[in-house]
Write a structure and sequence with these properties.
The chain is an alpha+beta fold. Helices cover 43% and strands 25% of the residues. It contains 7 helices and 6 strands, in the order ββαβαααααβββα. The strands form 2 sheets. It has a 3-stranded mixed beta sheet. A 3-stranded antiparallel beta sheet has the order 4-5-6. A hairpin with a 2-residue loop joins strand 1 and strand 2. Helix 5 packs across helix 7.
Length: 171
């Protein structure tokens, strides 16, 4: 295992923060794996671990992310919000965190589909993994609706239109 994290790519080189940038064998191995030239720089092991945890940690549960959104679920009706209020809401750090957590968890579980379903005043998040739908977490209806608005925003879809099918994508 190599303790490293990519910082940026520039002119065909990927700059990696590593605890041992002088280890030529590891650098060459990383170049083969990444299929890019690597420019290694020194970083303390604890700083690398902290950066990895900050950017890639998926150990946090949906429950903790949902706790951050308690204000949203107690908030007003999304259908009554104007465009500016909706934009402000979809860019809120809590909603961004929860939506990112959904995508990261789906990816880690190998999900081919993500379903946000409505069920009697609440929402249900489900992932399709190996052809089977798995229940992941129950969501307050307003949180589910806010997540749908966030996804529409990311996919450059009409966030005010919920009556007709739309096609959008993002990466």
């Amino acid at each position: 295992r190599v303790n490293a994290i990519p910082l940026y790519e520039f002119n065909g080189y990927i700059t990696l923060a590593m605890e041992d940038p002088m280890n030529r064998q590891v650098v060459e191995s990383l170049e083969r794996y990444l299929q890019h030239r690597v420019s290694p720089v020194f970083a303390l092991p604890q700083d690398i671990e902290q950066a990895i945890g900050l950017h890639y940690n998926t150990d946090l549960s949906f429950d903790s992310a949902l706790e951050e959104l308690e204000v949203l679920s107690a908030g007003g009706d999304l259908s009554a919000m104007d465009g500016e209020q909706l934009i402000k809401m979809v860019e809120s750090s809590e909603l961004v965190h929860l939506t990112n957590r959904m995508f990261i968890t789906a990816f880690k579980q190998g999900a081919s589909d993500i379903h946000l379903e409505s069920h009697k005043g609440s929402g249900l998040l489900r992932f399709r993994v190996h052809g089977h739908l798995r229940d992941i977490v129950h969501l307050p209806e307003k949180v589910k609706n806010a997540m749908l608005v966030r996804i529409k925003f990311l996919a450059e879809m009409d966030i005010a239109n919920s009556l007709t099918p739309q096609d959008g994508r993002f990466s």
